[in-house]
Amino acid sequence: MNLKQLSNILGISQTTVSRALNGYPEVSEKTRALVLAAAQKHNYLPNTKAQALATGKSKMIGFVLPMASQHEMLNPIFGDFMAGAAQTYRTQGYDTHFALTENNKQAETYRDMHAKGSVDGVIVQAPRENDERVAILKELGLPFVVHGRATGKNDYHYVDVNNTHAFINATNFLLDLGHRRIALINGNEELDFAIRRNHGYTQALKDRGIEADPKLMFSSEMTEHFGYETMNKLLAMDQPPTAAVASSYTLAIGIRRALGENGLRIGKDFSVVIHDDDLSYLRNGEAQPVFTATRSSIREAGQLCAQILMDVIDKPDQKPKQIVLEAQLIVGSSTGPVPQ
Amino acid sequence: MNLKQLSNILGISQTTVSRALNGYPEVSEKTRALVLAAAQKHNYLPNTKAQALATGKSKMIGFVLPMASQHEMLNPIFGDFMAGAAQTYRTQGYDTHFALTENNKQAETYRDMHAKGSVDGVIVQAPRENDERVAILKELGLPFVVHGRATGKNDYHYVDVNNTHAFINATNFLLDLGHRRIALINGNEELDFAIRRNHGYTQALKDRGIEADPKLMFSSEMTEHFGYETMNKLLAMDQPPTAAVASSYTLAIGIRRALGENGLRIGKDFSVVIHDDDLSYLRNGEAQPVFTATRSSIREAGQLCAQILMDVIDKPDQKPKQIVLEAQLIVGSSTGPVPQ
DNA sequence: AATTCTTTTCAAAGCGCTTTGGATTTGCCA
DNA sequence: TGGCAAATCCAAAGCGCTTTGAAAAGAATT
Q1: Is the pLDDT of residue B88 over 70?
Q2: How far apart are CA A16 and CA A27, in angstroms?
Q3: Which domain holds residue A153?
Q4: Which percentage of chain A shows pLDDT scores above 90?
C-alpha cells in the first residue's frame, strides 16, 4: 500500500492525502478524518525511504560501536546507554541506525554515514584526548553530541559525569574511614573518563598530604578478570593496601572473587568503592546497595544525549549545550574502617 | 556530492557512472577506473535512501528490543548477539535498524517496519510459546530468523542452543559427583529456552530415579539479585541442596555472593554449574574457567542468524534452515564432590 | 448577480538513484 | 572500404514521497 494507491481508493489527490496525514492546515477536517481512517484501515504508513529522499531528513540517529578487535571486548554499558537514547528518540519519530566498526575507523564510519545520507545526527561515545571524530563531524556539519568529553577544546555539545568529583568523593570516603593505602583500579587511561578519575583520586590523596603511589594504581579494560588479577597482585604485596576505588561493577566482581578466595571479607578486611553505571542487568543490589559506590545512570545519560541531539538537529547553530551530571555517593556494605 | 554532480565532473552519463560503480560488465575497464578514482577523490557514496527507493531493497536488518517495562531489565546478552550479527551483515553491506518497543508491542513494531519499508528482514529474539511474531512475519512475507525456538510449529528458520541437552549434561555432571539434592535457578519460564532447560534438568534427575523437587526449582529474571536471594533461601532450608544449576553467569555472581557471606566456599561446600553465554564483557575466566559451565557463544549465534537471514533475503523460498548448537561442558572450579 | 477573498484541492516537479531500451562507437572481417 | 556484431554509452522513466504554484470551489461582500 502506497500513497498513490491510497489516494486512488479515496478518489483524492496524493497531495491532499499527504497533507492530511502530515497535519497541514490546508485541508478540511472532514477530508482529514476520511484520509486518516482510510490509512488506518489499509495499514498505510509512508515509506521512510521515499520520505527521507523528499525531505532530506532521514529521521535516523547514527550509533557507532567499535568492535575493539584486540579483546573483542564490547562496551558493556552501551546497551543501556543506547536503550536510554532510543527511548527518547522514539518520542520524536527517530530510529537508530546501528553500525559496527573497526576500532580505529570510527571517524571514517561517521564520514560514510554522512556521505550516504543515512543519518541526521550521531552520538560519539568514549572520547579520547582531542578525539579526531569531533573535528571531522564539525567539518562535515553533521550534528553530534558527545557522551563524555574529549579533553582539549570544549566547543561542542556533550553530556558527561563529573568523574573527577566522583572519584574525589570516593577516595575521601575511604580516607575518612582511616584508610591511607588506597589502590586505584581504573579503566583504560587513554579514555577521557579514566583520566579524570585518576585525577580525582590523586587530588583527594594530595589534599590530605598523601602522595599517590604508582604501585597501587592500575589501569586496563574493565573486566572481571582484570579486577581479579589486580586484587591478587595487591594482596601479594609486602604492604597491601587496605582499600581500593574501582571504576566499574564488573571490576568489583573480580575483586570480590579474589578476596573470597583468600578468605578475606569485603567491607571488613578490605574496603572497596566503585563507580556504578546503574546498569539495568547488573544492579548494585536492590533496596540496599551491595557496594559503596558513586552512582550515575548511564541510561539517563543516554536520554539526555538524545534530547540534546534532537534539539541540535532542529536548530543546528546554537551555543554548546554541556551537561555535567553529579554522581551520587551511595553507601553499601563493601566499606568499613581500617582493620586493626 | 551526488551521482549527477559526479557524472558532470567526469563528463559521462549518470547511467555509466552508476554502472561502473556497481560493477556491471557493460562498461569498459578504463572508464570504470576513471569513475572509481573520481568517486574516491570526491568522497562520493551513493545516497542509501535513493538507492533503496530505486531498488526496493533497504539493505537494513531490523532489530527490535523490548523495553521490558516491568523491571526496566534489558536483556544483557543482546549487545553481544547484535554485535555478532552486525559483524556478519557488514560483509554484505547490510546495516542494522534498531528499534525499542514496548514489551507487548513487538509484533506491531515488525509490522510497522515492514509497512514503512525500512528493513529487508528481521531477527526475532527470545521467542515464547507459539509466539505471535512468527505468525505475523509469515503473513507479511518479511524474511526473518528466530534466535531460539517458539515451541509450537517449527516451520521457520532458527538458530538455537540445545538447551535441553545442555541442562541434562549439567545436571548429570553434578549427579556423577554424587550430588542428589540439586537446585535449579532458571530464567523466566514463559520463555522457550527456560522451559527446555527445565526439561533437561528434570529429565536428567528422572533418569537416575530422582523426582524433581519443586521446592528446589526457581525461575525469574536472571539478575544477580535473584541469584543471591535464591541462594539464601536454599541455605535457609532444613535440608539444603548441595548443588545448583543456574541459567546464567549473572545469577552465579549472586549465588557466589550469598555463599561467601555465609562463609561457604563455592566448589567445596556447594557446587554450581551455570550456562555461560560467553559474553565479551563478562567472561567466565580467561585461560581457566571460573565456573563449571555449559558454554555456547551468543555472539556466534548472532553471526549464524545473520548469515541465514541474508541468505533468506536473497532466496526467500527455501525450506527452513534450523541450526541447533551444542553447548560445551567446561569444567571450572565451582564444582566438586558432595561435602561429607 | 457580480466581484473579491478564502478555503480546498490538484497536477507536476523534484529528491538521488537504478535500469530499460535504444543509440552510438568500436573492432573485425571480407 | 563497407558491413555487421560487439562493446560502450546514453536519455528517460520510475521508485514513493513532499511541496510549489496554480486552479477550482465556496463564502463573503457589495
Answers
A1: yes
A2: 7
A3: 60-161+299-325
A4: 80
